Amino acid sequence: MNSKTISNGILRAVLIILGSALFLFFLYKTRSVIIYIIIAAVLSLMGRPIIRFLKRKLKFPNTLAVITTMALFLGMLFGLISMFIPLIAKQGRNLSLLDINQLQYNIENLLNQANDYFVSRGINVLEQLKSVDVFSNFKAIPNLLNTVIGAVGSLSIGLFSVLFIAFFFMKDSQLLHNGLMVIVPDKTEGRFAASLEKIEDLLSRYFIGLLTQITILFVLYTIILLIFRVDNAIVIAFLCALLNLIPYVGPLIGGAIMLLLTMTSHLEQDFQTQILPTTIYVMIFYFVAQMIDNFVSQPRIFSQATKAHPLEIFLVIIIGGLLFGITGMIVAVPMYTALKVILKEFLADNKIVKSLTKDL
């Protein structure tokens, strides 16, 4: 091996490293666009069953079916936003006229009642709360609101971009497919195309399953909060149901939110005779709703959607969380489903792959 060959090898390696670095830098700089494409792809997968129904059952032309589906998604989005507008407007007025001293008095009164209740039973777990200064940060709320308002412009651009991309993904169902096939070697193009079709079908069913799960929880939470006359029951129920998109951790956060908002919705009432019993009953029914979701609706929905055993899904989510945190938990099931389909197509004779993909 002469020096020229060695130099060419080193130069080639440097160019590959430099090209890889530039490509990663490009991905980092365009990460927002990549996120838009991913969200649009998810929307197109969720819209596939609706478009198919409109075209096959109602004989809609393709473009009209896509427009109708987009209008349905937009209607749902604006319906959710309109649900939050009264609450946001009310809180905005309250913050503009916020009496920090009165708010501090009300919350300290609540803490004192809670402390007296537990002290009377020999429990001093709330004693240290008296010395905690949780009110000094309330004056920072207006600045936070200004930051949130400033982000609305960026969100509107993102929303328009996602809807624009999703429209063409739905209108031309092969657009995303063809884009992926460009980077696939010619000799594996046929097998990869079959895998991609199967992945699209399974992920479409999975995202529809997620929507069904959130809807069931939203209805259950709303009924619970309305029974106990908690203020803004629909908004709270929606937030807590939406948090279930984060497996296992989300329900804990939702439970904490529901507990806090249930207690603070009746600050003027007596803690021992009204606030505490109401909160306990709400949390008991919240726990029952979670048990229904964990042991009835969720295993049935996800198992049918992804063709995987509930224990398999549980382990995949836990591993995703250990590797990549909350983001890993959210994307673990879709990624695992796609990986199983690809492995079945390319390694069908492998014993482990056969075991994992026997129901696909």
Index terms:
globular, 12 helices, mainly alpha, 360 residues
What structural class should be given to the helix and strand makeup? mainly alpha
The low-pLDDT segments are: none
Helix content: over 70%
Morphology call: globular
Mean pLDDT figure = 76
* Quantity of strands, as a count: 0
Strand content: under 5%
Order of helices and strands: HHHHHHHHHHHH
- Biggest sheet descriptor: none
Q: Give the radius of gyration.
A: 26 Å
CA distance, first residue to last residue: 51 Å
Q: Helix count?
A: 12
Describe the structure.
It is a single chain. The chain is mainly alpha-helical and 360 residues long. Helices cover 81% and strands 0% of the residues. It has helices at 3-29, 31-56, 62-96, 100-119, 141-171, 174-181, 189-227, 233-242, 249-264, 271-306, 310-346, 351-356. Helix 2 crosses helix 3 (62-96). The model has no long low-confidence stretch (mean pLDDT 76).
Topology:
Blueprint: H1 3-29, H2 31-56, H3 62-96, H4 100-119, H5 141-171, H6 174-181, H7 189-227, H8 233-242, H9 249-264, H10 271-306, H11 310-346, H12 351-356
Helix pairs in contact: 2-3, 2-5, 2-7, 3-5, 7-8, 7-10, 7-11, 8-9, 9-10, 10-11
